[in-house]
Amino acid sequence: MLSLGAGAADGRILAMFYAGDNPTAVAIAQFITVFGNAPVSVLFATLGAAILLVMKHPRRGFALLAVVFGGRLLVSAQKYSILRLRPEIEAHLVPVSNPSFPSGHAANSMILWVALALILFGDTRFRNVALAIGLSIAVLVGLSRLVLGVHWPSDVVGGWAFGALWVLIALPVAERLFVPKR
């Protein structure tokens, strides 16, 4: 992505989203970004697995945990392999300490919320609504990272793309491994 010229547009797009001078936008973005934080991902993946256990689907719970935690590990590996610097903007509006690409919040929220939607509601009439909600959360989390000035737009797009691809590949594999055929 970066080799295709995304870096040139990154600064201009980031400047459109960055809200350093808008306390209301910053407060909203700080709230939204929490839904992509590591502790929140762990909490909701664990809650999802617990719900599946109570619903007598423990193997689906294991599949959910495998997809979420496997994706988190791969995102970290990418960050420390690529080592892209974060934007040098006036001020990052939340603390950050790791490399920029891909956005872990964008990737992890895509993985968590889409996997939860598909595993918990995949066989129900609520699947499309749950999937739309999961995708919306992931999009909002990614955009919040731009508003807070902690990622380049290409970091966020890369995170979303990896997260979606990971769910498309890993979820069917995990379900084959953990969920018995009927």
Automatic annotation (TrEMBL):
<feature type="transmembrane region" description="Helical">
    <location>
        <begin position="27"/>
        <end position="55"/>
    </location>
</feature>
<keyword id="KW-0812">Transmembrane</keyword>
<dbReference type="InterPro" id="IPR000326">
    <property type="entry name" value="PAP2/HPO"/>
</dbReference>
<feature type="transmembrane region" description="Helical">
    <location>
        <begin position="160"/>
        <end position="179"/>
    </location>
</feature>
<protein>
    <submittedName>
        <fullName>Phosphatase PAP2 family protein</fullName>
    </submittedName>
</protein>
<feature type="transmembrane region" description="Helical">
    <location>
        <begin position="62"/>
        <end position="83"/>
    </location>
</feature>
<feature type="transmembrane region" description="Helical">
    <location>
        <begin position="129"/>
        <end position="148"/>
    </location>
</feature>
<dbReference type="InterPro" id="IPR036938">
    <property type="entry name" value="PAP2/HPO_sf"/>
</dbReference>
<keyword id="KW-1133">Transmembrane helix</keyword>
<feature type="domain" description="Phosphatidic acid phosphatase type 2/haloperoxidase">
    <location>
        <begin position="59"/>
        <end position="171"/>
    </location>
</feature>
<dbReference type="Pfam" id="PF01569">
    <property type="entry name" value="PAP2"/>
</dbReference>
<feature type="transmembrane region" description="Helical">
    <location>
        <begin position="103"/>
        <end position="122"/>
    </location>
</feature>
<keyword id="KW-0472">Membrane</keyword>
